[in-house]
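Repro:
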Amino acid sequence: MDEKEYGIDHVSIRRGLDNTFLVVECGGEYTEDYQMRMLEENDMGGILCPRGHGEEGISMYEYDISGKISLKSKYKEMKIDMKEMIKFITGLLDVVREIHDHLLDADHLLLDPEYIFWEDGAYFFCYYPGGGWNVWKAFHRLTEQFVQWTDFRDDASVRTSFLLHKETMKENYSLHKIARQLEDMQEEEAKRKRGGEDPGGRGGPVGRTGGMLPEGSSQAYDSSGHDWIAKQEAGSIMRETENMWRPVRDFLRRHKKPGWRDWDGIYIDEEEL
């Protein structure tokens, strides 16, 4: 994230024996405005309430992140799956609802992996009164990180991250509608897994037709019919590549000499230029 987009001048971490604080600074005298009073007087789930003060003409906002880990650190080594992405979106929608209920502005959420935190299965978001950026654009940029964090060996996770990224590229996307799409996808995935189990409880692997496979044999689930996003994207790229190179190939066929040993160039009529 470019901190300047949010009007942030400097970010630091202050650690002690009992607490750890994320400190965000911006230029200008600190003022106790409506946003700060609303944040201080209300307990809003999922929102890290800043403690604000001024220092030598600089406004400083401190967030208690004790015991929490940033998304940037969390997914540096591990991968994100379908279930966790849906959980994140649900948490974000709850936070946005809280913000609107208290007449605050969601554009002040810092939607960047460095400023989103996780603890005990819950996500926490920093509300930054000192500045803001378009939350609609910020979330789309965050989905690019989801794609990078995805375990590409897991079909459902791949489809989820690509759907998120693709849908948020639309001009007037709705996160609520995307969340419903993901919930439907999750239900389909659960049905698919149940369909792959032994319907008679005999404990053996099940073939795609629903019958038992011979003992000692295995048959991997064929996900090609379900990986519709990957197939769409791959097909589109292949078609575009084919259309681009076909005129070049035709052109070369028309103008090269018959024998490769006699090759000394391409013959072009002036009318074709």
